[in-house]
Specification:
This protein has 430 residues and is of the alpha+beta class. It folds into 3 domains: 87 residues, 2-Layer Sandwich (Phosphorylase Kinase, domain 1); 178 residues, Transferase(Phosphotransferase) domain 1 (Transferase(Phosphotransferase), domain 1, Orthogonal Bundle), CATH 1.10.510; 133 residues, Sandwich (Jelly Rolls). Helix content is 35%, strand content 21%. The strands form 6 sheets. The chain has a 6-stranded antiparallel beta sheet with strand order 1-2-3-4-6-5. The chain has a 4-stranded antiparallel beta sheet with strand order 11-20-14-17.
Length: 430
């Protein structure tokens, strides 16, 4: 799917979907922008041409790919995976209704002159790591990670699409082994070995390499020569191709492009954290990376029950700032309504100049105003001791979150209060 759309006046309805305009047309099918006449929601409607299923050579493969993707309708719920809402597969036709992503795909940013900033690419990679880890937990190896299958919304949110080539480990159906795009295939995929998440990790490494340098790590004039390079030749370090790339990035990308799965990162979170560490150094001063927000929330035990969908929702709801040492964040007797989450650093709590408590990473404060549901005088002063990564939450913004996210946040606040009451009961009295 590309970011350019061709406007068409189409009086066409497919099932309950009213076609609005053509988005893209390929050899096997067509994608339209359509409207769900029941809900009013805009969707991307992928239709398959009848002659594709009837193709004597590849019809069975195409049908299996379509069935693969159709079988995931309503099953994958992740903020960085294109949602599949509905699917119908008939004998010689079918359609899949999925989330419409309005910014096109990342292939538009995979060539010199069109490259995205380094920090932005690494943030996209971080989010894809979380999505692919989630997919693998659901029994899925994507098998076709490439720029054209990574959609980017105009808001900057990345979404993995096209699970037609995916290996569904929980499926009983016979699945074709040779799926994917050769430039992005892992060595073990080329050799038709059993695939784990390490294969998608390799493919994502190829995508990031291309988005950062404008070149693929391996190219050749024919498939056999390409295969030999992928299996035998080490890739050129990315910083040799683009001089402004941080040197630390070489080790990260060359590790995920290792020939053997065991030489790559042991888990998706390990790879994601490595990308985040480099990204933080690549962003402008004062900018808080999305990955840093997510990691701060993820490591807090009281929020461990939140899904990735809810964690990202909470991360995006807050106003994240860096606070210098010795800065007053909240002053006793001043009225306020904000709830605060300390993502990183240390702050002290005082009342009338007396030290009451020290707040560390992962703790909330200012919760009484939130719980009382109104502006109230603050009972203490909070001052930063070290530089803080701080999230400020307005009550109205929190109320717009999903019920699940609000429930876990409330539980975290209740536990926070219980811990403070216990601490107060153990403190010596004067």
């Amino acid at each position: 799917m590309t970011d350019s759309t061709v406007a068409m006046d189409l009086s066409l309805q497919v099932g309950k979907y009213e076609v609005q305009k053509l988005i893209s047309k390929g050899a096997t099918g067509t994608v339209y922008l359509a409207k769900d006449t029941f809900s009013g929601r805009e969707v991307a409607l992928k239709t398959i041409e009848p002659e594709v299923f009837r193709d004597p050579e590849f019809g069975t493969v195409y049908r299996q790919q379509f069935l693969n993707e159709a079988s995931l309708a309503g099953k994958l719920r992740h903020p960085h995976i294109v949602a599949i809402f509905d699917a119908v597969v008939r004998e010689n036709s079918g359609y899949i209704a999925m989330e419409y992503v309005d910014g096109g795909d990342l292939s538009q940013h995979a060539r010199p002159g069109k490259l995205l900033p380094v920090g932005d690419v690494l943030q996209l990679g971080f989010k894809c790591c979380g999505a692919l880890e989630y997919a693998f937990r659901e029994g899925i190896v994507h098998r076709d990670i490439k720029p054209a299958n990574l959609m980017i919304a105009k808001s900057g949110v990345v979404k993995i699409s096209d699970f037609g080539a995916a290996h569904l480990r929980k499926s009983q159906a016979v699945q074709t082994a040779a799926m994917g795009s050769p430039f992005y295939m892992s060595p073990e995929q080329l050799e038709r070995h059993e695939l784990t998440f390490h294969s998608d990790m390799y493919s994502l490494g190829v995508v990031l390499y291309e988005l950062l340098t404008g070149q693929r790590p391996f190219t050749a004039d024919n498939l056999e020569a390409l295969r030999r390079k992928i299996l035998q030749q080490p890739p050129v370090a990315p910083s040799n191709l683009r001089k402004d790339l941080p040197k630390e990035l070489d080790g990260v990308l060359l590790r995920v492009l290792a020939k053997k799965p065991g030489q790559r990162y042991g888990t998706w979170p390990e790879f994601a954290l490595a990308l985040s560490a480099v990204a933080e150094k690549s962003l402008p001063p004062g900018v808080v990376a999305d990955s840093e927000k997510y990691v701060a929330l993820k490591r807090e035990p009281t929020l461990s029950g939140l899904s990735d969908l809810e964690l990202w929702e909470l991360a995006r709801t807050g106003n994240w700032i860096r606070v210098p040492p010795n800065s007053i964040i909240m002053r006793e007797n001043d009225k306020g309504r904000k709830l605060f989450f300390l993502g990183k650093g240390e702050a002290k709590v005082t009342r009338a100049g007396r030290l009451l408590n020290v707040i560390h990473d992962g703790e909330c404060f200012g919760e009484m105003a939130y719980i009382r549901d109104g502006e109230a005088p603050r009972s203490a002063t909070v001052m930063s001791v070290k530089e803080l990564l701080l999230a400020e939450f307005e009550p109205e913004a929190l109320e717009r979150m999903s019920a699940g996210a609000q429930l876990f946040l409330t539980r975290a606040l209740v536990r926070n209060l219980a811990d403070r009451l216990e601490l107060a009961n153990t403190m010596p009295t004067r």
